[in-house]
């Protein structure tokens, strides 16, 4: 309605895979979206470029970006106080499991204590806001599948342990202060926007480059690890649904299907007529110090209480990612053939 105030959402991690899909979703719902980003010497907003409107165009610019950091409590409190959001989505994290073994202190500070800093900013704000905390299936670790909200956590990495802390901080602030705070325990969710160092995107990126003759091998670790893989675009809708309920709660979001890395390889390579065994090399450096063998979610609560269900299945997800990365490889090949870049950076 003309003159009616738009709902305001504040998103940390807006430049990531989930942040970009959530921003699209909320803009379609009519929200005004504000994202907190870290300062970088390089632009890291590629996933948002198609949504960006110069903020000087006040009428059309419904997504705005602000500098802040989960390690800086003052910046979090300043923006929560200034923007007075209706909903806060904490998606930011050092989210790479293997890297968390390399930088455990930083991972804990951003993922665990960062969530605490943001919760405290929301608690102290002059206007109540509903809070979403991005959990992870990695929190279950070695707990046997299927994993539900009632399953015990047994984290197997610094990242997972930090996510468990953030989960319980969220529960504590809900119980102690009455915050409308929800934990979304999202199982693995992928897309063409997934970071290229994550195994699914590493595979589909390699398929595209191998298909175009830019690469011959891809180096991987544990092929028997099983994961419940869904489409990120489906999962951000579940985040929003949680904050629209009458009462806050915690929800597992999953497809309830599990596939191994080897199955992902088979689906991706066979889609373009290749045999993955001709191109995959096992490299011990990609094995984790502590492995998570099998994750498979039980999302009964989310399906019944929220009315949520995944729309994109495993095979369609793989095809979507491979199609995107073949197009990416085609653009790369133009530059290689013209002599602008060297394709021999990988074997």
Automatic annotation (TrEMBL):
Keywords: Lyase, NADP. InterPro entries: GDP_Man_deHydtase, NAD(P)-bd_dom, NAD(P)-bd_dom_sf. Its EC number is 4.2.1.47. Signal peptide: none annotated. Coiled coil: none annotated. The keyword Calcium does not apply. Its cofactor is NADP(+). PANTHER family: GDP-MANNOSE 4,6 DEHYDRATASE, GDP-MANNOSE 4,6-DEHYDRATASE. Catalyzes the conversion of GDP-D-mannose to GDP-4-dehydro-6-deoxy-D-mannose. Belongs to the NAD(P)-dependent epimerase/dehydratase family. GDP-mannose 4,6-dehydratase subfamily. This is GDP-mannose 4,6-dehydratase.
């Amino acid at each position: 309605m003309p003159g009616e105030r738009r709902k305001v959402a504040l998103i940390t991690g807006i430049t990531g895979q989930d942040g970009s899909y959530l921003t699209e979703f909320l803009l379609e719902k009519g929200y005004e979206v504000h994202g907190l980003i870290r300062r970088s010497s390089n632009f890291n907003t590629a996933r948002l470029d198609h949504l960006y409107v110069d903020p000087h165009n006040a009428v059309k610019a419904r997504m705005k970006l602000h500098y802040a950091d989960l390690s800086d409590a003052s910046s979090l409190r300043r923006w929560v106080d200034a923007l007075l959001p209706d909903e806060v989505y904490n998606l930011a994290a050092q989210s790479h499991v293997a890297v968390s073994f390399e930088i455990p202190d930083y991972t804990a500070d951003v993922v665990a204590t960062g969530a605490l800093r943001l919760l405290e900013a929301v608690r102290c704000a002059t206007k109540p806001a509903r809070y979403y905390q991005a959990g992870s299936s990695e929190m279950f670790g070695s707990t046997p599948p299927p994993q539900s909200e009632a399953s015990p956590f047994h984290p197997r990495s610094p990242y997972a342990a930090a996510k468990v802390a953030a989960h319980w901080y969220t529960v504590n602030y809900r119980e102690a202060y009455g915050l409308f705070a929800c934990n979304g325990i999202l199982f693995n969710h992928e897309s063409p926007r997934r970071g290229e160092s994550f195994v699914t995107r590493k595979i589909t990126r390699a398929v595209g480059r191998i298909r175009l003759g830019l690469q011959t091998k891809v180096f991987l670790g544990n092929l028997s690890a099983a994961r419940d893989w869904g489409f990120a675009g489906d999962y951000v809708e579940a985040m929003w649904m949680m904050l629209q309920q009458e009462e806050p709660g915690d929800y597992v979001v999953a497809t309830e299907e599990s596939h191994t890395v080897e199955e992902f390889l088979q689906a991706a390579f066979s889609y373009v007529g290749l045999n993955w065994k001709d191109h995959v090399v096992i490299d011990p450096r990609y094995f984790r110090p502590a492995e998570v063998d099998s994750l498979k979610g039980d999302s009964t609560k989310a399906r019944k209480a929220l009315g949520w269900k995944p729309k994109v299945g495993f095979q369609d997800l793989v095809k979507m990612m491979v199609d995107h990365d073949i197009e990416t490889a085609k653009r790369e090949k133009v530059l290689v053939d013209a002599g602008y870049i060297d394709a021999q950076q990988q074997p």
